[in-house]
């Protein structure tokens, strides 16, 4: 994992830093990485004629120019902070379309609030029976969202594609279907003993995207939203003889 704290601080004052730190045309910046305690740390090196390429930047707080490899870190930092990278990083407008990649959209997708599915249980009213096929289904929805990223219009079509059922007794199940209400019994579970349980369902979303009305493309990865548990009491039924005539 790359830590972006230092990058986010220097980005905010980048204009002020470079106002007085112009270098000769013969010097250039290179970005190297080191691993410290398992964390990848980027280090900016200014290389000038006759200078050791491994020497650190001389001026405290110096950062690479806008066209260096650290622009990607700026974009990732802006996404993590919930900011528009176009404004946050001052990326030239002409470069924006080429920077909108599926991986960048995947980062944005993680920060879009998506609704959890509402778990429905039958029999209703929070009660079921031991050794009875308790029916489950999820009330889920497709989400269409438009966002502005790097100054461009990005449309997202977000679909629930997988459901993780947790029945509250240590048993779980994963399906691609949300289940159905009675009499169609797609997702059922039998409890083996009485007691209180708290079943829930997690919803996994995948998405496609398009930029400025262009062709639709897949967003890599997925986002899983946990659902709130519901309270369910499992009871045992006692047979009672009724309507017997002596």
Describe the structure.
- The chain is an alpha+beta fold.
- The protein has two domains: 5-91, no CATH class; 118-235, Immunoglobulin-like, CATH 2.60.40.
- It is 16% helix and 35% strand.
- It has helices spanning 5-12, 14-19, 71-80, 85-88, 96-99, 102-109, and strands at residues 28-36, 39-47, 118-122, 127-129, 134-139, 143-149, 152-166, 172-175, 187-189, 195-197, 200-211, 217-218, 223-225, 232-235.
- The strands form four sheets. Strands 6, 7, 8, 11, 12 and 13 form a six-stranded antiparallel beta sheet that branches. Strands 3-5-9 form a three-stranded antiparallel beta sheet, with no helix packed on it.
- A hairpin with a 5-residue loop joins strand 7 (152-166) and strand 8 (172-175).
Pick out its properties.
single chain; 246 residues; alpha+beta; Immunoglobulin-like; 2 domains; 6-stranded antiparallel beta sheet; 3-stranded antiparallel beta sheet; 6 helices
CATH hierarchy, class of the largest domain: Mainly Beta
Task: Characterize the largest beta sheet: strand count, sense, and whether it forms a barrel.
Answer: 6 strands, antiparallel
Instruction: State the CATH topology of the largest domain.
Output: Immunoglobulin-like
CATH superfamily label of the largest domain: Immunoglobulins
Alpha carbon gyration radius = 28 Å
Globular, elongated, flat, extended or rod-shaped: what is the shape? elongated
Average pLDDT, to the nearest integer? 74
Q: What percentage of amino acids are in beta strands?
A: 25-35%
Structural class: alpha+beta
The tally of strands reads 14
Count of discrete structural domains? 2
- Architecture (CATH level 2) name of the largest domain: Sandwich
Count, helices: 6
**H/E element sequence:** HHEEHHHHEEEEEEEEEEEE
Task: Report the helical percentage.
Answer: 10-25%
Low-confidence stretches: 1-24, 33-42, 52-70
Distance between the termini: 79 Å
């Amino acid at each position: 994992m790359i830590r972006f704290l230092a990058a986010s601080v220097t980005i905010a004052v980048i204009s002020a830093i470079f106002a007085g730190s112009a270098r000769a045309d013969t010097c250039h910046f290179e970005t190297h990485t080191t691993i410290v305690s398992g964390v990848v740390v980027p280090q900016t090196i200014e290389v000038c004629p006759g200078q050791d390429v491994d020497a650190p930047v001389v001026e405290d707080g110096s950062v690479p120019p806008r066209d260096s490899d650290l622009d990607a870190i700026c974009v990732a930092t802006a996404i993590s902070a919930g900011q528009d990278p176009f404004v946050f990083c001052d990326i030239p407008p002409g470069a924006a379309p080429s920077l909108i990649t599926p991986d960048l959209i995947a980062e944005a997708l993680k920060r879009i609030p998506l609704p959890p599915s509402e778990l429905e249980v039958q029999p209703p009213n929070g009660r079921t029976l031991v050794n009875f096929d308790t029916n489950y289904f999820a009330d889920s929805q497709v989400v269409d969202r438009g966002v502005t990223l790097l100054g461009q219009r990005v449309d997202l079509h977000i679909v629930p594609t997988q459901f993780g059922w947790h029945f509250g007794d240590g048993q779980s199940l994963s399906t691609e279907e949300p289940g159905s209400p009675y009499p169609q019994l797609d997702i059922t579970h039998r409890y083996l003993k009485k007691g209180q349980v708290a079943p829930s369902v997690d919803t996994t979303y995948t998405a496609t995207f398009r930029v400025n009305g262009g062709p639709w493309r897949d967003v890599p990865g997925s986002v899983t939203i946990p659902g709130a548990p519901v309270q369910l009491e499992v009871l045992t039924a006692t047979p009672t003889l009724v309507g017997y005539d002596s």
